[in-house]
Structures are given as C-alpha cells and as structure tokens.
Amino acid sequence: MSLMTLSKCGVLPAGPAVAVWVEDLAKRFIHRPLLRWREPQVVTALERVSFSVERGEIFGILGANGSGKSTLVRVLSTLLIPDQGTACVFGYDVVREAGEVRRLINRVSVEAAFFKRLSAMENLLYAGRLYGRHGSRLRADILAILERLGLTPEQANQPLEAFSRGMQQKVAIARAFLTSPILLLLDEPTTGLDPRSKRDVRELVQRLRSEHDATILLCTHDLAVAETLCDRIAILDRGRLVAVETPEGLTRLAGQPGERAPSLEEAFLALTGHALDSESTDEID
Prior knowledge:
- This protein is α/β, with parallel strands linked by helices.
- It has one domain: 3-Layer(aba) Sandwich (Rossmann fold), CATH 3.40.50.300.
- Helix content is 35%, strand content 27%.
- It has ten helices and twelve strands.
- The protein has a six-stranded mixed sheet, with helices on both faces.
- Strand 6 (84-89) and strand 7 form a beta hairpin.
- Helix 3 (120-130) packs across helix 4, helix 3 packs parallel to helix 6 and helix 9 packs across helix 10 (264-272).
- The radius of gyration is 20 Å and the shape is globular.
- The two termini are 31 Å apart.
C-alpha cells in the first residue's frame, strides 16, 4: 500500500479503509515489591508492535497467556495509555481522541462487569440506553440475541449472580452485539463456553460482520476459533509481534519444502518456540 492519506491520526495507508492502525506500540508496567529494599520489576507487555486491520476484516491476535493480548485490547479501547507509539481507530488517536474512539467500539473481555443482583435483561436494557436505545424494539433485540446464544426468556429475567461464569460471558457478548459497533474488540470471548456456545459466538461474529459492516479484532488462545473465523492472524509472543498472515500463510511460513503442511498449532510452536497453552508467570496479559 504505497499511497498515503492524511487523517486526524496522522498519515495512514490509503486503499481499503483502515480500521485499526498500530505503529511501534510499547507498554511497560512497574511492579513495586512489598519490601522496600527490593528493586522494582519492569515488565514489558508490548514491545514495538505494528500492524493494521482493514475495515470489515476479522483479525485475530493469537498468543499464550502472558503474551500481551489483553494489554493491546485495553490500549485500543482507551483504557490504557501506551508508553510509546501510535494506535488509531478509524483515524482517531486512542489517546488524544479517546472520546471519538469510544463511540465507535465495544469490547468483550473475560472480566466483564455487571450489576450482579439485576437480571440479564435489566443489565442489557441499561447498556442499550447508554447507547441511546430504548423501547420495545430494544427488548426484542435483547431476547433475539440471547436466544442465539442459547439463553431462554426465562433465564433473561434471572439475576446474574445466579449465572455460571459461562452464562455471564454470553450476556457480555450479547451486550457488545446489542450496540452494533463498527469495531468490536473481543478479548477471549469464548472462555468458559461449551463447544456449542462457541459455535454460536462464531456465527454471531460472522453475522455482525456481514450485516453491519463491522470490523472485529479477536484476541484468543483458542486455535479452532482463530482458524475458522479470522481472515488474518497476528501471533503475539511475550509482547512482540512474531508474524501476521492468513491462517494458511502461517502454516506455510512454518512448513518445510517437500513435507506436509503443519497445523496451526504446529506453526505456532515453530514460530514461537513453545506451545500455545504454556503460561507465563512473569508477564502481563
């Protein structure tokens, strides 16, 4: 992409509209020990990460626990300020123009916050009104989305404190889909869900992209979800971007001439040197 166009976020590539632009992004955290004589520990969560996501793309960030996926999502959703680099959403800088960015996005994370004593319906009605939605149409849309996720109207009226973690995750997903954001940030959205519920989430993601021209950035360590949903996948390892390719392209990168094409799991192992399910104990995700 050689042509360039000037936007509120500086100079961005032209051609297909750029939904997300990340350049030289870095974020570090300082862990201060309880014992004052010990030195603070500097933990690098993101180290000079650069990539772009085209409008309408389902873009995956694949990495083990501790790779920096959640930190990246928090930066893009304006919840964290990067130490260096630039991050833009549809031309708006996530630091200088955070208010504009928030109007365009929604986020699903594994630590979704709710009013636990209220019902799923009450939580979702409240969320819809925050985005300017109200009336009988809102209630009907809530029931339709929950049904697609396997929750009945009776369950919709039960308090969230009675829900399992997986069921609460479904309500978090419903809340994000309710607003039809043009950029949806999904941080481990299928955690705690059974195989059928994971399939329901995949179908909803594809529907949101096709019916609402949405762009989806999906952070996951679920290989099946990444391989079936994503147009391209970025592999993030210990805060560094290892590769950005289509699922097929990643397997070609890791393959050897004359041998069978490796699986995506084998490609991840070859490109990072460790298995996807290995956990880091000294880095922040």
